[in-house]
Amino acid sequence: MRIIVSVTLYVIFAFIQINMSLGNMVIDGGLDDATIKGIITQLQMLIAIYLVLKENKPGFIAAVLLNIASIFSSMSFVIRQGSSEPLPATISYLGVLLIIMLIASYKKKMNANIEKIDSQRKSLEKSENKLFQMVYYDSLTGLHNKEWFIDNLNRSIHVAKRNASMIGVLFIDLDSFKSINDTMGHSTGDEVLRIIASRLSSGLRKEDVIARFSGDEFLIMVPGINNMEELHKITDRIMDIFKTSISLQVIEYFITASVGVAVYPEDGVDSENLIKNADIAMYIAKSKGKNQFIYCTSDIKNDTIKKMELTNKLYRALENKELLLHYQPQVQADTQEIIGFEALLRWNNKEYGAVSPNMFIPMAEQTGMIRPIGLWVFKTACEQLTVFQNIFCKNLSMSINLSLEQLKDIDIVNKISNILNDTGTNADNIQVEITESIAFNEDSFILQQLEDVKNLGISISIDDFGTGYSSFARLKSFPIDLLKIDIDFVRGISSGSQKDMAIIKSIINIANNLGIEVLAEGVETREQFMYLREKGCKFIQGYYFYKPMKSNEVESLLGNKPKTGLITVNM
Ligand code: C2E
Ligand code: MG
Ligand code: MG
After folding, report:
1. What is the arithmetic mean of pLDDT over 260-286?
2. What is the pTM (predicted TM-score) of this model?
3. Where are the alpha helices (DSSP H) in 138-176?
4. 184: which of 60, 188, 229, 564 fits an S-S bond (Cβ 3.0–4.6 Å)?
């Protein structure tokens, strides 16, 4: 439309100009002809420039054609009439032609640049989207990821603050998922994760948010709840999801989950604390037997704070001289003579008093503190053994507990060897106690470390035997010297458990046949002792004979006993 109007106007102006030049038309406006013609030429120039600027190719073509036509018409007028009057206009038309050419080429370049910028913008948008996917989505399950969840939770906390509503945060961890990966391969594991992710998503309300936290862990946020009942319903629904099996390649998988629940504002007023407390509650659910959900409580939170404080204090326990060893005598069943001791670590903290080894040893293992502490135990026990041997005037053994974490230390064998040398201890008198999980470990490095410890001349005993996973093949191939029957089986003797007694008899038989010694731990009654002795258990450790004692208490045992070192108990 613009082109048609502009071209028409241009043609009208040209027509007027031609007719004025031919003398067919007179415009009486108080201006002379030359001025009017000049104005008309200027207006034509403006129209031509307007066309090039406003319209793209068609505008440019129209402007060029109009100008060429004008030049031709002026030139033919000059030739035909022999008048030089149209020459200034002709030069103007030529000038305009040049200007519109320049404008067109400038526009062309500009358009090319705009196109380039546009394509760059598009590819930038694309990579931005990709980046967004990578930053906020989990590529395996298609769920949002942790970062996105935290952003969302923070926003929901803002809203909940205003509305005085509650938010539930569920920390879900699949039970024994590792075994699926290990036995069926990672692609099956991935498929299971995808199916669970989609089942969990479909069990939620539209305002709830789900994310994959990491590995086999998922997070769910349940915002806008007004009472705990609402949250209970949702947690029930989520637990129900795990009641249905997953079928993959004709195999049916039953996968359960442990769920920890934290609630805003009781269990935290920011995303970090809410997720942390839900995680802690999930761990409690796991430790209580898995396949259940646990709500975070003030007890759980206090316990965690206490553990954190204790962990911090444990770092200073060695230098503050808060650690000490107790020694529990081990006796020979037939003579009831003390043949050695087990060194048991004790921690007397200034603030918390005596902390149970069952509490602080796992902490020491998790933090790596068990390495320096373990070496201190080794050295102290060796030194004490020399003292005991001198007092008892006989060869005694010292059993020292060793954690897996200590065996991961590449230099442990050297360190133990140095302690033996420095304290002048005969390796034959030292026994290290390891758990079944270490002895039957598949890690060849750990097994080599154990072999090396054994090569120093130290005996190896398996602590709490029967409570973990044992392998007969390993019992046969690995040079184990002693099995310590766990207290749980020994207790079974008193409660008349036929199964426990059968297990005890089997352990003793297998050990005898393999040339391995047997010690029963946690023997508390005469009945237990008599049974074990009768069944052929050679060594006994337990309160029935001796409780773990301080070193000076062990030394004072001698005061009441004959100096031969033979210490007997009245039966
Ligand atoms: P453990 O090595 O199986 O030690 C035996 C535990 O049973 C000791 O508990 C001992 O006090 C207890 N006990 C002994 N006889 C009886 C009995 O007749 N009845 C009952 N009810 N209990 C009895 P404790 O001293 O609390 O140690 C617990 C665990 O801590 C030990 O179990 C051991 O696994 C670990 N532990 C202790 N000291 C060390 C250490 O120096 N290093 C490492 N890595 N672990 C240690
Ligand atoms: Mg032990
Ligand atoms: Mg034990």
Report:
1. 96
2. 0.67
3. 146-163
4. 188
